[in-house]
């Protein structure tokens, strides 16, 4: 029996050029590599996520505002314990408890970052109530809210597999509640305004990372760094090159340094 952990990630690009952009799977991939755990990746096409999740009998862990299930990845299957988990934060907690050796995902620290906005958040966020690591859970929710509010900047960046491109775009359109794929584009003055808001939002986070750097606790990474790092991975692959360079350089280069420092945990197995 293969005892490797099995990690389900969302496949982007054509089969010969598979790559990953989705933020929550990135949180899990970074955590698996951070813990130095052996695993294999099962790539799932975006339109197949719901059916794969259902086939593994993993219920949706979140719902859209209209009450319908939000089926997403990552999924982690542990053949050694027969556990199946379908939420990135739950997976991180599981890895910490089941495989305590090595790097500590949740060292004690204060994560005093709060994001508030009047902008609608269309994608449901992870819950934080009752977590074993409440500081990290709240940080996860606030960071996800902050980046999701600006995610339209990244919407037209991914390269899709031609075989499933139209189906994938249709699902993005449905989730965003717009009428067509072109409606997700942000251009001109509207884009400049959203970029300015993105820069301002990152300024609040930069105050935390600027204390020690490149990580929140100096030279030792933890799961809070991976949460932000996962969003930076997505941004690096979906923003236009010139805008990604701006993000890297904003606020004294804090986020460029964080992104680069996490490169050792970004290997795709």
Automatic annotation (TrEMBL):
UniProt cross-references to InterPro entries, sorted A to Z: Glutathione-S-Trfase_C_sf (IPR036282), Glutathione_S-Trfase_N (IPR004045), GST_UstS-like_C (IPR054416), Thioredoxin-like_sf (IPR036249)
SUPFAM superfamilies according to UniProt: GST C-terminal domain-like, Thioredoxin-like
Domain GST N-terminal: 12-103
Gene3D superfamilies: 1.20.1050.10, Glutaredoxin
Pfam (any one): GST_N_2
Superkingdom of this protein's organism: Eukaryota
Entry protein name: GST N-terminal domain-containing protein
Taxonomic path: Eukaryota, Fungi, Dikarya, Ascomycota, Pezizomycotina
């Amino acid at each position: 029996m293969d005892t490797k952990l099995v990690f389900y990630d969302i496949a982007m690009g054509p089969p010969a050029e598979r790559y990953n952009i989705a933020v929550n799977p990135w949180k899990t991939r970074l955590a698996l590599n951070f813990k130095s755990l052996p695993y294999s990746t099962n790539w799932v096409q975006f339109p197949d996520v719901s059916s794969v999740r259902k086939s593994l009998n993993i219920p949706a862990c979140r719902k859209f505002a209209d009450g319908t299930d939000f089926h997403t990845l990552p999924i982690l299957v542990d053949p050694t314990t027969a556990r199946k988990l379908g939420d990135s934060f739950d997976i991180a907690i599981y890895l910490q408890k089941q495989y305590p050796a090595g790097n500590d995902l949740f060292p004690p620290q204060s994560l005093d970052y709060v994001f508030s906005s009047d902008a609608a958040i269309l994608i449901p966020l992870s819950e934080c109530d009752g977590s074993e690591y409440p500081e990290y859970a709240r940080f996860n929710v606030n960071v996800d809210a902050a980046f999701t509010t600006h995610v339209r900047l990244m919407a037209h960046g991914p390269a899709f597999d031609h075989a499933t491109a139209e189906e994938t775009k249709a699902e993005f359109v449905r989730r965003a509640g717009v009428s067509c794929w072109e409606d997700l584009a942000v251009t001109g003055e509207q884009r400049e305004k959203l970029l300015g808001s993105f820069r301002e939002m990152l300024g609040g986070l930069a105050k935390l990372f600027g204390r020690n750097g490149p990580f929140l606790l100096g030279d030792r990474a933890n799961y809070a760094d991976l949460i932000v790092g996962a969003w930076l991975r997505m941004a690096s692959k979906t923003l236009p090159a010139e805008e990604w360079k701006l993000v890297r350089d904003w606020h004294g280069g804090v986020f460029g340094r964080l992104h680069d420092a996490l490169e050792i945990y970004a290997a795709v197995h």
